[in-house]
Design goal:
- The chain has 386 residues and is α+β, with helices and mostly antiparallel strands.
- The chain has three domains: 137 residues, no CATH class; 69 residues; 133 residues, 2-Layer Sandwich (Heat Shock Protein 90), CATH 3.30.565.10.
- It contains twelve helices and five strands.
- The protein is elongated and about 105 Å long.
- It comes from Streptomyces eurocidicus (Streptoverticillium eurocidicus).
Length: 386
């Protein structure tokens, strides 16, 4: 999603007003041209006025009409009008400035957002239409040079933005893939740990005379380990990808405490709340996900909330699973070198990890000020309760 689409999604009413304003401005340009040329009414002037109205209406980004349909209609109408006027008697002045601006709006939208095939087809047609519209006059030199230059500039800039957007999408895909690989390796370690525990406990039960409460306790431990292993295996199957790499120990709640203590020594104080007894029932893969989210959130606080005076981290069980909330009261970014700022993909990786585990991650301004990150991890508890 580009910035314009993101702004429109966050402010739907303002987006409607902006679309209406764009259409009004373009139609006002066409009306001004028609009024200025009304003292010389003729069939060419009527054709240019009609084409201008159609093209301007096509430039307004309606949600229910696809962009490629509007662009195709505008290009066809404009090129047909230009061909008719250029092959017949050239009028002295027909202008078409509003129509040309609308064509440039469609050109930049097509080159930035349309699929490759549509952009490769409609882009040249819209560019030719932009160049042909000012050539309808008997003496087209004045407008042709201006709109020819604008067409080249708009095309180059739109292609540059398209290339940057494509690169960012590839970078985001790489971040998501790397995060899923890391999660798959962690889950692999958890499965191996639990299966090993099952084998050891089963062997102990086989070669040791157990009966009564002792046997029940042993089988309860085996059942618990098997449940944890199956839960991790289900997630592993969903996120595993080809490739192998060295693995590291999986972090958990003790590492979360150590992480917050280390952060507080060089940054703002951290208030950490972990629900009592959670260490005994939280799955290891969820604890690792919590550690990953806390680590990235604290890193972002150092970068983007240099004036923060306190950080609050809360971890508790809820009916839907485990809820993590990280909030700070900062508002000003730290003055870091450009290379130290990163590519802005930290939240992308976190969201991919949490989504792969079946959870939800949200980040945004907190109601009381500052910034807030919340993550919800489903657990076997909520699956069984449901």
């Amino acid at each position: 999603m580009n910035r314009a689409a993101g702004w429109a999604a966050r402010h739907p009413r303002l987006a409607v007003v902006a679309k209406a304003a764009l259409g009004v401005v373009l139609l006002c340009l066409v009306a001004f041209e028609g009024r200025a040329l009304a003292r010389q009414p003729s069939q060419p002037h009527a054709m240019v006025l009609a084409a201008g109205v159609v093209v301007c209406l096509c430039a307004v980004p309606y949600g229910w009409i696809p962009l490629h349909v509007r662009a195709a209609v505008a290009a066809a109408v404009s090129l047909t009008t230009s061909a008719v006027l250029m092959t017949g008697p050239h009028p002295a002045a027909v202008w078409g400035m509003g129509e040309d601006i609308a064509l440039l709006v469609l050109l930049t939208a097509v080159l930035q957002r349309s699929p490759s095939r549509a952009a490769a087809t409609l882009g040249p047609l819209l560019g030719i239409a932009c160049l042909a519209a000012p050539m309808r006059d008997l003496d087209p030199g004045r407008f042709t040079a201006v709109f020819g230059t604008l067409t080249v500039v708009v095309t180059a800039y739109s292609l540059l933005l398209r290339g940057q957007s494509g690169q960012r999408m590839r970078d985001m895909a790489a971040v998501r893939t790397a995060e899923r690989l890391e999660l798959a390796r962690e889950l692999h370690d958890l499965v191996a740990h639990h299966v090993t525990g099952i084998v050891v406990q089963a062997q102990a039960a086989r070669f040791t005379a157990l009966d009564g409460p002792a046997a029940a306790a042993a089988f309860e431990r085996i059942e618990s380990s098997a449940g944890e292993s199956l839960s991790a295996m289900r997630r592993l199957v969903g996120v595993l990808r080809e490739g192998d790499a060295e693995t590291e120990p999986v972090a958990g709640l003790p590492e979360v405490r150590a992480l917050t203590e280390a952060f507080a020594r060089t940054g703002p104080p951290v208030v950490l709340y972990i629900e009592q007894g959670m260490e005994h029932w939280i799955p290891a893969d969820v604890a690792a996900g919590v550690h990953r989210v806390v680590r990235e959130a604290l890193t972002n606080i150092r970068k983007h909330a240099a004036d923060a005076t306190a950080v609050r981290i809360g971890l508790r069980g809820v009916p839907a699973g485990v809820e993590l909330r990280i909030a700070d009261d900062g508002g000003n970014a730290a003055a870091l070198p450009e290379k130290a700022r990163g590519g802005g993909f930290g939240l992308v990786g976190l969201r991919e990890r949490v989504n792969a585990m079946g959870g939800i991650l949200r980040a945004g301004p907190a109601p009381e000020g500052g910034w807030e990150v919340t993550a919800l991890f489903p657990t076997e508890r909520c699956f069984r309760a449901g």
